[in-house]
Amino acid sequence: MNPIYLDYGATTPLDPAVAAAMEPWGVAGYGNPHSAHLWGYQAKAAVEIARDAVAALLHAPPETIAFTSGATESVNWALKGLLTHPSNTRRRIVTLATEHSCVLETAHYLESLGAQLTIVPVRANGIVDLGDLERALGEDVALVSAMLVNNEIGVIQPIAAIARAAHAVGAVMHCDAAQAFGKVPIDVDALGIDLLSLTAHKVHGPKGVGALYRRPFTMLTPLLHGGGQEDGRSGTLPTALIVGLGAAARIAGERMAGDREHALALRDRLLASLTVPVEVNGDLEARWPGNLNLGFPGIAAPLLSLLPGLALSSGSACAAVTGRASHVLTALGLSEPAAKASLRLGFGRFTTPAEIDAAAAQINAVVTRLSQDAA
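RE: above sequence
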């Protein structure tokens, strides 16, 4: 039997309705959306419908949305594009210690080219102290980057306050919304976001497509040079994938409140079903309820290999490739062994209460056995 899938933080199951929306554009609707004939016009119309759906979920004008291959490309374009644009005279980036590796590694790359990088720590609950952030800012800061919903611990950063602090020193505000898009309400104007990166596969859409929101007059150097199809992002648009992103956005908008209530009920059910000592990594209230990162006091052994019936992780899928401890959990103050022994459980739209009960039973059994062996 397949393990119970509890790794929604890594990727979400493709919604069948999204797959159905994509299907006509994978075979029959093969026109290039940039071509000036009927096939191209039909594909372009489908792309623009998707653009409208993505923009609506951000309360943004459609013309501010550029399609990319995913959140990593969007982040790279936002950071590299801003720091290398001739109009930018500032050289410093400020970000948080718990950001996704695509933000941190891009920032480190720019640092190797001469930019300055300031990484602000977070409190033990995973949320930044605004005083620490403000003390890190100055008029040399070009960009502040902060994630809305953390991919490993699910905590929600105070983006509006962070953006106000960034704008007070004349910096641009970038938000990694890969884990937030379609799950929590986002209004780019109300939050003060200038650049926002997102992806489809975290919200029941296909892999390989995402978008970058860019506030008008935010100047970026193109990341990919060529035909300039997406206002600076060159390359033929993948119609079927973009249609999938648009469908996922539309469905998420319709189901956002219900999806949240479902995830919250599953989270509370799981916590109530765990009979072993457990600690929640990250703030329990200011978080997306479909992400639950758990530590088990006294347990230092990596638990993943002992839970073959569960498909989950101990950190991001990116970190799993290297085998290193989660930088997010160590930023919260966990030791490396404790971080490696933690479990990230992601669940949502298609997770059932029976799966949560089975997962809790497996975790209880393994942790109990390890505790008895250590006694």
